[in-house]
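Sample 1 of the test manifest.
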Amino acid sequence: MTPLTSTPEWQALHSDRAAIEDQSIAALFADDPDRFTDFSITVDGLLLDYSKQPISRAVREQLLAVARARNVAAQRDAMLTGQRINRSEDRAVLHTALRVPAGAPGWADATIARDVTATRSRMAELATAIRERQRTGATGKPIEHVINIGIGGSDLGPRLVLEALAPLSDGPRVHFVANIDGVELQQAMAACDPERTLVLVVSKSFGTVETMANAHEAMAWLRRCVPADDVLARQVLAVTANLDSVRALGLDPDLALPMRDWVGGRYSLWSAVGFSIMLGLGPAAFEALLDGAHVMDRHFAEAPLESNMPVMLGLVSVLNATLLGRRSQAVVPYTERLGRLSAYLQQLLMESNGKSVDTDGDAVSLSTAAAVWGQTGTPGQHAFFQALHQGTDVVPVDFVGVARPVAGEKGDPLELTAHLFAQGQALMQGRWGEGLSAMQRCPGNRPSNTLLLRALDARRLGSLIALYEHRAFVEAAVWGINAFDQFGVELGKGLAADLKPIIAGGLEPAGLDGSTAGLIARYRHWRG
Ligand SMILES: O=P(O)(O)OC[C@H]1O[C@](O)(CO)[C@@H](O)[C@@H]1O
């Protein structure tokens, strides 16, 4: 893979780096009254406004030239058509196939489409039977609670969606359990009647320590509390790509909902991993979520690069993170319902693109993924916004707003929206003028994107999530890295397994580094 820095297109952009950094965003508006129209893109009720970035028309052309030089369109097509683009794991990457409506033309082959439709139908039948109380728990009581046990991609997506659309929930109440310390599981078990609870064990690998530990605990609870021999068969359901391990846990693999190896964990909420969404909101809402994502997929596949929302969002990110060295990025949704968004995007963007070698294994020549963080507005305004306005580092912000709240939600987002728009304006304009002390002045010229959803509903949420998935793809394509493996996460998992018996006191801490040995000694001492 040619290093990005060796391409003439990047070199041309880089030679203008200082000018771009100094570019007054306000001046770009003054020079071009139509700038908002030209630097915003709308796809089916989702608007991206990237006009408050230091990007002139000429700079946009340079960015697009970089995208062409990196074959972003060809790389996209290779993903969509099921080529094995995840080279380090020799896998195709087909989360987009999960969102093609049944019978509609997709990009991948027909076998995959049939498999996707079959799983979706099975999920819908089962969810309907549970929601309509035809399929009960082992003692004949209806399922009113679901405990979703999973972590990372087997947790964050369904959690985000169910929190966002909670007012639409008319099915069993879903409780999420990810951490291994037992806190969430204890809380969930305390809130659930075991005879009316379905436990979902969601794990692509079915080997993740946290998930397996929590699954054992929850299964023991069901066995203890439900007087029926077939309680596990009736009330525990595995969602996985590893059916052999389902058997090892004592569950029937024939009952499990399958995942495929061509779906990465952090791209999997559209698969059977989203079963808890279907249970909570119903199959129609799940379909709407998929439809919204598919609309974004089609747009990504078909729109010219310059009016392609994920392409432009990805290029803006590369400009900030790589060209201008802005190593962190805030995501601030202006609705409490999207409070999980920054955590979701942390995994999506940082696990995908926190890489320092390219697809050939050579060191990349420039910085890749920036740190992603944030919380909702307006609480975030009273926490970290001071640093956004006056701190020494420029932190690009993605604002996310909704024109209409989720159906059934009380409260009007107008007040919040005023804050949202005001913050973007304030970051750009700053505050200057006679009579202001140095402490009172705000430098301004700080970039932001604004994403505005016509309404917070399943369809727009699907589009929004798919947009960020494709942004990660575009960034990776430009950087020349593989967005679909995550070997870095494995290292700590292995070390934790080695350390556990030492910390527990069964093994002596031989050969450890001084810090780890010291920490273990102190922990043991304080634990008593
Ligand atoms: O679904 P699994 O296999 O339990 O993995 C959970 C998560 O662990 C990771 O492998 C690493 O955090 C993620 O990519 C994945 O979403």
